[in-house]
Amino acid sequence: MQAKPQLYGLPAYKPGKPISEVKQELGLDQVIKLASNENPYGSSEKAKQAIIDAVLNSAIYPDGYSTLLRTKVSEYLGVDGEQLIFGNGTDEVIQFLCRAFLTPKDNTVMANPTFSQYKLNAVIEGAEVREVPLTEVGEHDLEEMLNQIDEHTKIVWICNPNNPSGNYITKEAFESFLKKVPEHVIVASDEAYIEYTIAEDYPDNIPLLEQFPNLVILRTFSKAYGLASLRIGYGVASKELIQVMEPLRPAFNTTTYAHAAAAAAIEDQEFVLHSAKKNRVELEKFESFCQEHSLFYYPSQTNFILIDVGIPGDEIFSYLLSKGYITRSGEALGFPTCIRISIGTEKENQGVLQALSQLLEERTTISKS
Ligand SMILES: *Cc1c(COP(=O)(O)O)cnc(C)c1O
Fold first, then answer.
1. Signal peptide position in this chain (predicted)?
2. In the structure, what pLDDT confidence band is assigned to residue 9 with cuts at 50, 70 and 90?
3. How do residues 334-343 score in pLDDT, each as one tens digit?
4. Which fold has domain 59-268?
């Protein structure tokens, strides 16, 4: 028995501990998960109702072409339906891209640290992964990424805003980059957090699709739309690019519930806007906290914040966990002295910041004694 050799070095995805397990282990009544950047306000009521209504059709295979959702998304974005591909989460669209374009003869360029799925899927296809370190302030080094591109490069990944640093790339910087990328290279712009961005110069890349047949835009319903459990995301690109990926999409990869919920959710922009507004108010509390405690943080356009506490990330993680907050240690994310915290509700944020401030106090008491 011999699988593809590259599979033997790969660790399986380690999911965060489920809340129920953490509660039992630590004897806590309440455990709050601020680890996966989900929407703390849930999802649109209309989306919830759509899921309930869809239950009646549970015995029937979903519409493999996601016709209803395709129509809604194409109307919302102002693109043709044939320019869309739907995945079981954006994760699956990333998989489609890698499977369609990467072979062991190719390479792919990405930032480091960035979203882990690009590298994972590229490695599985046996492609060479060229990682370009983020700048000191957590931004993509677009110039060096361009330098890394050669005739064997197939895909370059741009995570905008970047997970886990939260930084964004401006419209001007992205367009200038795109113009310099050779036509044979796909530029994948992962915009999972677009709904949370407030920067005036954050780009709207949809109009660029007409001009750049090598551009793919990735979006998801898992974050601001609050539908992470349903696994639905999509890619937008030229018809030619989508057409080449369609045959490798499993026939029924997205569910009836996901179609119904996402179609309702995209019509309820009020919910998304409301979530994004509250997120910004709460995010600013984290920024103030960091300023008060002289902690470096990465400027975020998302619903999470990466904070440098100056001690091992696993230690910060364990301390916060002992207080009932599940977060993400920077050690697993490439920022060894950082903690990544998803922005929760007002009460959740108050709690996690209080815990963080206790940790800082305990550290100073220890270092003084
Ligand atoms: C969460 C996330 C996704 C989307 O994940 P889904 O598979 O759609 O749940 C994609 N890219 C980034 C950068 C993310 O953080």
1. none
2. confident
3. 999 999 999 9
4. Aspartate Aminotransferase; domain 2 (3.40.640)
Q: Which of 20, 39, 38 is nearest to 30 (CA)?
A: 20
Asked if pLDDT for residue 359 goes beyond 80, the answer is yes
- Cα–Cα distance measured from residue 204 to residue 199, given in angstroms and rounded to the nearest whole number: 11
* Pocket lined around ligand 1, Cβ cut-off 6 Å: 37, 89-91, 115, 159, 163, 190, 192, 220, 222-223, 228, 233
Closest by Cα among 113, 180, 114 to 153: 180
Mean pLDDT of the chain: 96
Nearest CA to ligand 1 atom 2: 192
- Categorize the per-residue pLDDT at 111 as very low, low, confident or very high, splitting at 50, 70 and 90: very high
**Residue in 86, 88, 222 to alter for ligand 1 test, most ligand atoms within 8 A of Cβ:** 222
H-type alpha helices, the chain: 19-26, 45-54, 67-77, 90-101, 116-124, 142-148, 171-180, 239-245, 256-267, 269-292, 313-322, 346-368
Q: How large a percentage of the chain has pLDDT more than 90? A: 93
The per-residue pLDDT for 368 is 62
HSE-CB at 131 with a 13 A cutoff on CA atoms is 13
For the cut 70, the answer to whether the pLDDT of residue 63 exceeds it is: yes
Q: From 3.30.1050.10, 3.90.1600.10, 1.10.20.10, 3.90.1150.10, which CATH number describes the 5-30+270-360 domain? A: 3.90.1150.10
